[in-house]
Amino acid sequence: MYPIVKKRDLTSVTKLFEVEAPMAARRAEAGHFVIVRVDEKGERIPLTIADFDRDAGTITIVVQEVGKTSAMVNRMEPGDAFADFVGPLGEPAPIRQDGHVVCLGGGFGIAPVYPVARELQDNGVRVTSIIGARSADLLILPEEMQSVSDELLIATDDGSLGHHGFVTEVLREMIDDSAEIDEVISIGPLPMMRATAEVTRPHGLKTWVSLDSIMVDGTGMCGACRVTVGEETQFCCVDGPFFDAHLVDFDEAAKRGDMYVEKEQLAYERFKENTDDSRCSCGGETSG
After folding, report:
1. What is the DSSP string of 150-195?
2. How far apart are CA 268 and CA 262, in angstroms?
3. Residue-range domains of the chain with CATH
4. Do 95 and 116 contact (CB within 8 A), yes or no?
5. pTM of this structure
6. Omega prior to 3 cis, within 30 of 0
7. Separation between Cα atoms, residue 198 and residue 172, nearest integer Å
8. Distance CA 163, CA 255 (A)
9. Measured between alpha carbons, how far is 106 from 121 in angstroms, rounded to an integer?
10. From CA 200, how far away is CA 250, in angstroms rounded?
11. What is the mean pLDDT of residues 90-106?
12. What is the C-alpha separation between 224 and 230, in angstroms, rounded?
């Protein structure tokens, strides 16, 4: 079992957890992910590592409630424990040793872009971070991102904070203003990452995206997380999660991501109907 040692509410639907997982913490790097399971009958879900503390033996994850399993996780409290917490998995993020990198984080994607920006800055790279959300109340980790960025820019869809619009519009303005950028790293919803690729493509600006396709085992055995990159089949779990954005077949990735949307929504609605707002019991099982 992997106990939760700390929980922090980031927004009404987004929670941060520090989990005791010493073996994973010893080997974790920026860009790695873990696969967690609430209980022995639960779904396995991949979550990119938002932070790690090798000395304390903890891994930090951020979970946004979008379905049944994420709702179950977000009802857990310190003292509850995950049945499984497997990792670190995947390849670490591509980290430059010099130059200027722009890091884009959209919604829950701000959490996994944080350790990437931190490592870049630790290497002496100039980091500009552009983070965004639908509204100011849904923006997560602005202070943490400020601490690992030479410049922090914010965008909100409704204009409640920072630029009124999308993070990709801020990036386009930087490029149009002839900013010297060596690389872009974009993490967030698939449409955002796709838009990032289209902004940078005409300029031949190297761009990385982190894909979180549907995943089962996380070791390349099941093939569920396959994506097409440069007309070759790749697996997010072992070849990624970071890929060259200009080579990703986003049409295929979007279709695969939508395969179970109706079933996921049905499971979520049933869960909400049968579950109250009380905390999870020890071991992560919910009441009802």
Report:
1. SEEEEEETTSSSSEES-HHHHHHHHHHTT---SEEEEES-HHHHHH
2. 10
3. 2-89+262-274 (2.40.30.10), 100-257 (3.40.50.80)
4. yes
5. 0.88
6. no
7. 10
8. 30
9. 20
10. 15
11. 95
12. 19
| pLDDT tens, position by position, 200-254 | 999 999 999 999 877 777 777 887 888 999 989 999 889 989 999 999 999 988 8
Q: What is the largest CA-CA distance in the chain?
A: 57
**Gap between the Cα atoms of 46 and 86, Å rounded:** 9
CA pair distance 245, 174, nearest whole angstrom: 19
Q: Please report, as a single letter, which amino acid is at residue 118.
A: R
Outline where DSSP puts E strands in the chain.
Answer: 2-9, 14-20, 33-37, 45-48, 51-53, 58-64, 81-82, 84-89, 100-106, 126-133, 151-156, 163-164, 183-187, 207-210, 226-229, 232-235, 242-244
CA distance 208 to 181: 13
Q: DSSP 3-state assignment of 10?
A: coil
| Length of the chain measured in residues | 288
Name every residue whose Cβ is closer than 8 Å to that of residue 145 and which is 6 or more positions away in sequence: 105, 110, 113, 114, 117, 129, 131, 152
